[in-house]
């Protein structure tokens, strides 16, 4: 929904880019299902990498957020 409470086609990233004057914007963190889609890594493998310390996470309440920079570093190593 946009600021007026109506559905719009503008994504959150597009709004952030507009606020930052067109600078490229990356998410700070993503949830596990998004990380699975972005990387193609299975959910169980993702949790194994988290347990091994290969991927950094932030817990907020019961939610697990994966640091986007951590995902990028993982693939830069391969």
Spell out the blueprint of helices and strands.
Blueprint: H1 12-19, E1 29-31, H2 32-39, H3 43-51, E2 57-60, E3 63-67, H4 68-77
Antiparallel strand pairs: 1-3, 2-3
Spatial order of the strands forming the largest sheet: 1-3-2
Contiguous uncertain segments of 5+ residues: none
Q: Class by helix and strand content? A: alpha+beta
- Alpha plus pi helix count: 4
Mean pLDDT: 83
Order of helices and strands: HEHHEEH
Q: Given the C-alpha coordinates, what overall shape results? A: globular
Count every beta strand, where a strand is a DSSP E run of 2 or more residues: 3
Overall helicity = 40-55%
Cα-atom Rg, whole angstroms? 15 Å
Largest sheet: 3 strands, antiparallel
How far apart, in Å, are the first and last alpha carbons? Answer: 39 Å
| Share of β-strand residues | 15-25%
Short précis:
The chain is of the alpha+beta class and 78 residues long. Helix content is 45%, strand content 15%. The chain has four helices and three strands.
Q: In words, what does this structure look like?
A:
- The structure is a single chain.
- With 78 residues, the protein is an alpha+beta fold.
- Helix content is 45%, strand content 15%.
- It is built from 4 helices and 3 strands.
- A 3-stranded antiparallel sheet has the order 1-3-2.
- It is globular.
- The protein starts with 11 loop residues before the first helix and ends with a helix.
- The mean pLDDT is 83.
């Amino acid at each position: 929904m946009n600021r007026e409470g109506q559905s719009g086609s503008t994504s959150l990233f597009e709004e952030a880019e507009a606020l930052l004057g067109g600078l490229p914007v990356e998410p700070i963190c993503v949830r596990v299902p998004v990380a699975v889609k972005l990387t193609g890594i299975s959910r169980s493998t993702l949790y194994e990498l988290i347990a091994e310390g290969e991927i950094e996470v932030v817990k907020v309440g019961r939610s697990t957020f994966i640091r986007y920079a951590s995902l990028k570093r993982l693939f830069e190593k391969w």
